[in-house]
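User: I'm writing a short report section on ligand binding and want a predicted complex to refer to. Could you take this sequence and shikimate-3-phosphate and write out the structure as tokens? A short remark afterwards would be nice.
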Amino acid sequence: MKKIVVINNKIKKFNVDTINIIGDKSISIRFIIFASLSNGKCIAKNILKSEDVLSVIKIIRKLGIKIKLKKNYCEVYGKGLNGYKFRKNLILDAGNSGTTARLICAALINSNHNIKITGDESLKKRDMQRIIDPLKKFGLKFKSKNGKLPLIIKGSNSLKSIKYFEKLGSAQCKSAVMISSLFVPGKTFLKCLPSRNHTEIMFKNVLKIPIKVKSKKNFDYIEIDGKKKFSSFNYNIPGDISSASFFIVLTLLSKNLNLKIKNINVNPSRIGIIKILNSMGGKIKFSNKKIYNGENIADLKITSSKNLNSINLNPSLNSSAIDEFLLIFLVASLSKGVSTFRNLGELNKKESKRLDWGYKILKMIGIKVLKIKNNGIKIWGNPKLKLNKTFIIKDYLKDHRIFMLSVIIALTLGGKWIIHDSDSFKTSFPSFLDTIKKLGGKFN
Ligand code: S3P
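Assistant: Sure. The structure tokens for the complex follow:
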């Protein structure tokens, strides 16, 4: 049966003024993997229970680690760096989750059997060469067609520490190298383009692993001393800024609305969207700021913004907003003036080709938009845009962020929206439609 959501009504007011958002996906996946490698029982509160996190839990259980997933918390019984049980002919399925696929390969560094890693239709199209290259340097062996899933991985008993230059600005690649470095004696050195730094923060503040991080002008330099075991730990996972962003933009683009979103991780490497939208005239404020295990946490207060201006985005902000560009393009479409974004090639390497999809959806709603060189896009904003036609969104490889973007456009600009694969949001934000409903959004 086809799963379709139909939206035919803008949202005019919110029924509640405060919402909570589910736990951060990046931190939830890291919690499961790091906890499984620790020595003892780890507990996480507010862990995200989305399909991506369920994929990593299933994989870790297949590796012989006990995980209890309860209503309000999750327990992982870590067995240390050598604790995984590698059965013959093991197949690990990462589902839709690029983070799971890439980080788990790094943790299989000492497997004594071939292990097959696979994923869904979208994940099979994504680049794995970016982690194969550095992990091979440690001594891991890979077999894959064109650097894509499914791939076969085998560990080695002659592993060595490495020096690696991460040139994509990918947190997943950086984290893969950091995880493998734990298993090998000696120091691993990384020079990398900036990307989200949850792994560095957890290594230092939670796992207490000897790590040095220096941020210079264009690069981060990381040094990790390997072969260090670490104790069990507990973690209270803060709200996910990427999921919160759909409600930030919903509020910003609607008329005369206010919303408070509580307990969000506002790590500086993740808040590109807030910096960008505020510099366009958005009204997003932080309150109740605190630091938890090295992460910055705050409540967000958002007020509808009438006069938004275009932006010529400095690409140095790209990595801190990498999952939010579809929403940023939408805001640019409703702003005064012409906005320009560049160096966004990585967007086409996500769950779907998001740069191409952004272009396609903006064209569909009647926005003048142009693809420019260096994987850039130019958007001619139209603050008066209102929609009354029918729009159909389908064949988007079930990319959760495209589904949620379409819902937000429907609720802010109107028109009739028929959105296929209406379960796709469950990979990252299973309570998305419930939150829309709670606020007063109507859909069938
Ligand atoms: C993630 C890193 C990002 C992001 C993804 C989650 C992570 O990808 O797009 O949704 O948890 O490390 P990159 O590897 O491109 O940074």
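A remark for your report: The chain has two domains: 4-22+238-439, 25-227. The first strand starts at residue 4 and ends at 7.
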